[in-house]
Automatic annotation (TrEMBL):
Protein name as annotated: HNH endonuclease
Coiled-coil positions: none
Domain of life the protein comes from: Bacteria
Gene Ontology terms, MF aspect: endonuclease activity; nucleic acid binding; zinc ion binding
Residues annotated as domain HNH nuclease: 128-178
InterPro entries in the cross-refs: HNH (IPR002711), HNH_nuc (IPR003615), NA-targeting_endonuclease (IPR052892)
Length: 192
């Protein structure tokens, strides 16, 4: 058990006030809790921060770099760790308790650039992807087993950013295609 002092003020800042993206909040709270009441002097090895958030050391380093670039993590007084051997000195961080703002909304799963602009011609599905989908689905409609007028269908529509990946594609026959109605997008034909 460790009984290090915990700075509730800094924890509250992360939770209530800091404009921190959700995916970085865990890393920031672990660093902030080890600060003093002014939000200064947090010194923990990256491996220890990673252990507490359950993330990898590499991901923790990326989180710290992003928090630094967002101005939510500042370099503190490095003389606080001068008593430690040079190879074992963690970086000392301060957190800016005065910074308050709205938390950013998480980015959508598929980026906006992938969404089809009106009238723009779609790129053909790569042959390797097409072959893999037909092989996985047994060269037949995955709903009824028919082999008539087969076409690839995007499960998550292209118009809403669905990617051309094997996971997002399936084989449907002409009949199941038309039954799907407006929700379906026929995007590639076996005949071409
Ligand atoms: Zn079918």
């Amino acid at each position: 058990m460790d009984h290090e002092p915990v700075c509730m003020r800094a924890i509250d800042w992360v939770i209530d006030d800091a404009p921190v993206p959700a995916e970085l909040a865990g890393t920031l709270v672990v660093i902030a809790r080890a600060c003093d009441d002014q939000g200064q002097g947090s010194s923990q090895p990256v491996a220890k921060i990673a252990k507490k958030t359950g993330k990898s050391v590499k991901q923790t380093q990326r989180d710290i770099a992003r928090l630094r670039s967002l101005g939510l993590l500042l370099l503190g007084d490095q003389t606080l760790v001068h008593n430690l051997a040079s190879g074992q000195r963690p970086t000392v961080y301060d957190v800016p308790l005065h910074i308050k703002g709205t938390k950013p909304v998480r980015a959508p799963r598929y980026s906006a650039e992938r969404i089809a602009p009106e009238g723009v011609r779609r790129r053909p599905i790569p042959t390797a992807v097409r072959v893999a989908v037909f092989a996985r689905d047994g060269d037949a409609c995955i709903k009824c087993g028919s082999t008539h007028l087969l076409a690839l269908d995007r499960i998550y529509p292209w118009s809403r950013g669905g990617p051309d990946t094997v996971e997002n594609l399936r084989v449907l026959c002409g009949s199941c295609n038309s039954r799907k109605g407006a929700r379906i997008e026929v995007i590639d034909d076996l005949a071409d």
